[in-house]
Backbone:
């Protein structure tokens, strides 16, 4: 069971720099989700893909954020011109297409912007 | 805003049953009730879900009130490894776009005392 993997686990960057995170979902899952989580709060939805199509984006996803899933397999989340308020845990999840299929989460990438 | 409300924290003794409550008074007829838990430094993990009838699996039981406005996650014999934040969320089985946002509250932090 390879599960959902995310890379890197931790990222420290200076304000204004760009960062990119990678998510490898469970191979047979065609849905992929990105969430953001701050300390003491539940995950906040950012965006999701069905195969390579990005079907929904949250209002939280400003113009500085972009996500891709070029071949319907792995996904990347890029944050440009990082701000201190971007510091959070970024979680990726995947699921089967069945609407009630459970989400399988990775262990996240913790971003610290100094 | 989260569609569910849960106590901020609960304590239980090891090897005793734990009942975690969740209120969802605005639940619609098409909403499934899902539970996830998040161990420290990990992504959320699916626990169980149900619609109307009580459900059991290897991890837990889910008891759903007759009017569906509340539910209870039951851990039959808590261990130290069950110490986590437990989230109760609603998923629309019709699969409307907003379904994938899975609005999460802050969850219940379960503390297990040895």
Residues:
């Amino acid at each position: 069971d390879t599960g959902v993997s995310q890379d890197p686990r931790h990222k420290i960057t200076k304000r204004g720099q760009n960062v990119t995170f990678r998510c490898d979902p469970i191979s047979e899952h065609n849905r992929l989700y990105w969430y953001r989580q701050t300390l003491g709060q539940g995950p906040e939805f950012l965006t999701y893909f069905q195969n390579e199509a990005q079907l929904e984006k949250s209002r939280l996803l400003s113009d500085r954020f972009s996500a891709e899933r070029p071949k319907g397999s792995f996904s990347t989340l890029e944050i440009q011109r990082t701000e201190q308020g971007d510091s959070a845990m970024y979680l990726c999840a995947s699921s089967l297409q069945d609407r009630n299929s459970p989400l399988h989460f990775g262990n996240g990438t913790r971003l610290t912007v100094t | 805003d989260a569609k569910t409300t849960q106590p901020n924290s609960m304590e239980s003794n090891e090897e005793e049953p734990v009942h975690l409550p969740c209120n969802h008074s605005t639940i619609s007829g098409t909403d499934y009730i899902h539970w996830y838990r998040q161990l420290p430094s990990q992504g959320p993990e699916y626990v169980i879900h149900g619609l109307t009838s009580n459900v059991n699996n290897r991890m837990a039981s889910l008891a759903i009130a007759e009017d569906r406005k509340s539910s209870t996650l039951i851990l039959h014999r808590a261990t130290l490894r069950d110490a986590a934040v437990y989230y109760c969320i609603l998923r629309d089985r019709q699969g409307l776009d907003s379904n994938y946002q899975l609005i999460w509250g802050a969850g219940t932090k379960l503390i297990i005392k040895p």
